[in-house]
Amino acid sequence: MPPINLVVIINALQPCLFAEMDAIDMKSLKAKFVSFAVVAGFSVLATLPLQAQTVATGPRAVAVLLCQYSDKPNTYGYTAAGILNTTWLPNNITMNGATVDNSISGLIAEATYGNITLTGTQAFGWFTLPNPLASYPVSSNAGDDCITAAQSNGVNLTPFTYVAVYVNDVLNDASGESWTATLPGPASPTQLNALIVGVRGFTSPPLVLHEIGHILCLSGYGGSHTDSFSDPLGGGAALGDDPMQPIKNGETALRVASVSPEWDASRRELMGLIPTASNPQFAGGTQTYNLSRLTQPLLGLPTAIDVPLPGGTKYVISARTHIGYDSYQTFPNDLYITGDTMATEGVRIELFTSTNVDAHVEMSNPGGDPTSTDAVWLTGQTYTDTANGITIAVTNFNPTGDPTAQITVTSTGTQTQAHRAQSSLKVR
Ligand SMILES: [Zn+2]
Fold first, then answer.
1. How much distance in Å is there from the Cα of 37 to the middle of ligand 1?
2. 78 CA to middle of ligand 1, Å?
3. Rounded to 10 degrees, what is the CA torsion of 230, 232, 234, 236?
4. Cα 210–215–220 angle (5° rounding)?
5. 255-302 pLDDT, tens per residue?
6. Distance from residue 358's CA to the centre of ligand 1 (Å)
7. Spatial CB neighbours of 291, under 8 Å, sequence gap ≥ 6
8. Ligand 1 centroid vs 215 CA: distance in angstroms?
9. If you measure from the C-alpha of residue 177 to the centroid of ligand 1, how many angstroms do you get, rounded to a whole number?
10. For 282-306, what is the HEC assignment?
11. Which residue among 94, 138, 292, 336 has the highest number of C-beta atoms inside a 10 angstrom radius?
């Protein structure tokens, strides 16, 4: 089957809006998570390959830059060395009684099967921006000014592929943003090469990871948001405490969110992380697949099964288990989202739509909530898309087994899109 090219339109800038998360109940938290994905505009026409691609490999050093607005003197005790050691370089925390690495560098290495590392990453700052907070309605302008300020203060950015800017207060237009900066170093293999986060970023490695998710996606595409709670580009991007707020009662320090989980299978396809040989395309009839877990895959087994649908959409089937960074709780405290799909191991069925990239969802049981464990498929369960005549049966799922799952996909091809409303599809 030849590759199918889809045309998508996406903004070059990726503003990312996160709802304030303090002192709100879980239901509203979920609602806010589901609705946070906002893209401000559409300006770049790009071609999106439907099938897996391979990106360039090797180290991509990040220059982490700390900048303060000219009218905001408080840097909350954060230092360049501190953020490097708590977020970027390997660092150990205690999680469920185990010692685990909570670093972005470790997660990137695992998610890319060691093909991409952040080796050479360094941090610099603080530097002072030339203007006050109010004069930066577009956050990337503050980011560009921060890059200039760092260079003016002797920072040589030539060794770095990416820049990550942290500022000491809010951003005016988002919680985080990625953009294309003018950098002297090795060209980014993707369109985007820089990210900026507000002061919340110091306690929110998942927010930084969210922006990296945009950056890692293939050239011209820039990533997309999802409604999936098992993906950093969706509800998986939790926030830590707000340094500008008092420490919560009963806590002795600001709580830092865990950098996890890794990206969903469809995102990893967009990032070029899944080799073609590990990404079979369902071609009709009945096919049974032995499937590996998505993270730390088992040798010789596919990690993502694509089921093409009419109109350029597709299902992407994967198996998520609690291994590596996918074993971390999204947030090890009372902000932990109990309905998070990563709380339960199982098979995920994502609906990837090219026409509305922000509507990517995980498929749930009929009437279920696709942002909850309703979207986790276990042994004996069958997903039915009546409209397209497709069934996806999980004949076996064993998180510690080899294979991790056995999946049978069947297409009757006898029904039409007109019956879609009667299918078990639940799309948010
Ligand atoms: Zn975003």
1. 7
2. 24
3. 50
4. 130
5. 888 888 899 998 888 888 888 899 999 999 999 999 999 999 999 999
6. 10
7. 301, 302, 303, 305, 317, 318, 319, 347, 403, 404, 405, 406, 407
8. 10
9. 7
10. CCCCEEEEEECECCCCCCCCCCCEE
11. 292
Burial of 68 (0-12, 13-18, 19+ CB in 10 A): buried
Around ion ligand 1, which residues have CB less than 5 A away?
Answer: 14, 16
- 174-188, pLDDT tens digit by residue? 899 999 999 999 988
The Cα–Cα gap between 100 and 81 comes to: 20
Cα of 175 vs centre of ligand 1, distance in Å, is: 9
Query: 153-170 pLDDT, tens per residue?
Result: 999 999 999 999 999 999
Instruction: Give the distance (Å) from ligand 1 centre to CA of residue 238.
Output: 12
Neighbour count for residue 302 (Cβ, 10 Å): 22
In single-letter form, the type of residue at position 158 comes to T
Can you read off the two tokens belonging to residue 390? Answer: 């497709």
CA of 142 to the centre of ligand 1 (A): 18
Position of tokens 């922006």?
211
CA distance 200 to 171: 10
How remote is the CA of residue 408 from the centroid of ligand 1, in Å? Answer: 34
Question: 359: CA distance to ligand 1 center in Å?
Answer: 13
pLDDT of res. 180:
94
